[in-house]
Fold this protein.
Amino acid sequence: MILCANFKANKTRQDTRAYMAVVESFVSANGIGDTIIVFPPFTALEHDPRNVLIGVQNAYPVQNGAYTGEIALEQLEEFGIKTILIGHSERRHIIGETQEQITAKFRFFAEHGFAIVYCVGEPLAVREEGNDILMAYIEQQFEGIDLTYSDLIVAYEPVWAIGTGLTPSNSDIELVHSALRSKTDAPLLYGGSVKVDNASTIMALDNVDGILVGSASLSANDFCEMIAQATELQ
Ligand code: 13P
């Protein structure tokens, strides 16, 4: 299983240190073999060797240069970062990233050998149009994306399920994940209101290889509990 914690714009550097200490010691004390990735804010990046991977939630697809307010490859290299989240719905819908920008980012970080957690997912109005429209929408989010990239992880996160406490039914998750499975061999994560209470059920679904957790991952104990649940499933 792959379990990811996306902090978004939450936690300070100090909070993150305390959090990592809890998760790191849980992972090593329990001999956890699952892949655990934490995406803290940029200000909390550290360069310690860890058995929990650290990724970034975003970066600009250049080595360095005149891109005010951006963080580029050179800054990530300083911290040994080789994992990035691309295409998250908050970047698509709040920040306004286009598929073209997302594709450029994907290509650049793939060329530099990053593990890429690539997010797709539909708004509620699209889901209400039925499965064919839903899959056509997701298909567009794969435009320009190399689904055979060897370090790819795909995360299905319905926009309407993010931070709302709502989740698709188990069979709806399986339906989308089986369609995704027919497109790529990459591990498939589900994200959107995953909590301690539903994580185990979701991780047990067909073609679900892990979870991408936002708000519920902010508690180190809750995230560790989800890691424990993943271990129990195996
Ligand atoms: P929530 O778990 O808060 O719904 O967020 C999911 C998410 O966006 C993870 O990337």
